[in-house]
């Protein structure tokens, strides 16, 4: 009966019952034995599920002069009936500091496909191809003349996933889950190439982050809210992804993240936390907009316990995204009309001149501190 209720909810959008904590097997449990595992080329394969899911690859770009952009391809399937793909490109502060000045493009993709190894994605006017060594993506797009892409994102440290496979499973039968959530990261990348707009050509030489994620069920059933941060310093890269499930799955918090530097993962795992010490109600959305934040990472390196912290004011938000106003119609059908579902994303960036500081402490040693560039999101769904 639980399986039937969930299948009905996943297909037509009805509310889920409260299954309780036994209906979710989090990656946190995996991480008790294996805090994290390094990615192989096979781990970068597209799953392209033929059931309700949203699978994405997203590249966050931070140029040497502090310009921030994102490139995302979305593969979406509804109940195994239809698949759509979308390319999203965003350059923050394209013309100035206000939300209206960002360049935001969201284009449907036609004739999408994958290479034989399922590691490269193609569509009309777009290719995101992984090289033979499995350590760099070449992104080329002429899908929209408002942003022509020619970029290379090359990892300079191993990729990682929490636990053995980076996956949290949903369902009352652990052997036959009805949904999943998976994240895999390249936390520290070298970026070269450009994005050309009608106004100018942007040199995006600098740092980058790559994330491959799967929500193998309706997005608003998998998570009620999200938190994400990447922080890039000259020596270190910090990354954290946290989601909280709806009450259907006991409002469970899952947090994965790590600290990397050139050539190595310093530490990674699930013992991380984000707190918003200062927030205020946004009168337009009624969501609590963060004003300041503290991110903490805990783990072990070869010398024992190690921790990292970033904390401080977020300043004015860079943007607030009304998700239902920006996503394609078929994806919108996954969440539209569900009572209490109002997805908004609050985005914050810090250019080098307004940097926060990453503090890393190993054992009883003196903390190492470095300033860097921040990009973070606080997402509220339901």
TrEMBL record:
<dbReference type="InterPro" id="IPR051385">
    <property type="entry name" value="Ceramide-binding_SVF1"/>
</dbReference>
<feature type="domain" description="Svf1-like C-terminal">
    <location>
        <begin position="217"/>
        <end position="382"/>
    </location>
</feature>
<keyword id="KW-0963">Cytoplasm</keyword>
<dbReference type="Pfam" id="PF08622">
    <property type="entry name" value="Svf1"/>
</dbReference>
<dbReference type="Pfam" id="PF17187">
    <property type="entry name" value="Svf1_C"/>
</dbReference>
<dbReference type="GO" id="GO:0005737">
    <property type="term" value="C:cytoplasm"/>
</dbReference>
<protein>
    <submittedName>
        <fullName>Oxidative stress survival, Svf1-like protein</fullName>
    </submittedName>
</protein>
<dbReference type="InterPro" id="IPR033394">
    <property type="entry name" value="Svf1-like_C"/>
</dbReference>
<feature type="domain" description="Svf1-like N-terminal">
    <location>
        <begin position="54"/>
        <end position="215"/>
    </location>
</feature>
<dbReference type="InterPro" id="IPR013931">
    <property type="entry name" value="Svf1-like_N"/>
</dbReference>
<dbReference type="GO" id="GO:0006979">
    <property type="term" value="P:response to oxidative stress"/>
</dbReference>
<comment type="similarity">
    <text>Belongs to the SVF1 family.</text>
</comment>
